[in-house]
Design goal:
The chain is mainly α. Helix content is 76%, strand content 6%.
């Protein structure tokens, strides 16, 4: 398989995983507030999203991971996952 095809496939998979994690985090009931405005589901969802971003930067590369971050935030605001 071509290198650019692998990069594009991995980038699409990372975007799909992040949007799925954000959507599942939205479906979870609002848990207990830890401190300030942070709830348990926000902490879990944020940690998952950051893990996927870090792994995509290590596996795919810096620029495709930056594209994953931008695309996932745009898609999250489009489907109404964000605040």
């Amino acid at each position: 398989m071509n290198t650019s095809t692998k990069t594009l496939t991995r980038t699409g998979l990372a975007v799909a995983l992040i949007v799925a994690a954000q959507f599942i985090g939205k479906l979870l009931p609002a848990g207990a507030v830890l401190f300030g405005p942070f709830s348990v589901n926000q902490l879990i969802t944020g940690s998952l999203v950051n893990l996927i971003l870090i792994l995509s930067a290590l596996v795919i590369g810096l620029w495709p991971a930056a594209a994953v971050g931008v695309l996932s935030s745009i898609l999250a605001s489009t489907i109404g996952v964000g605040p």
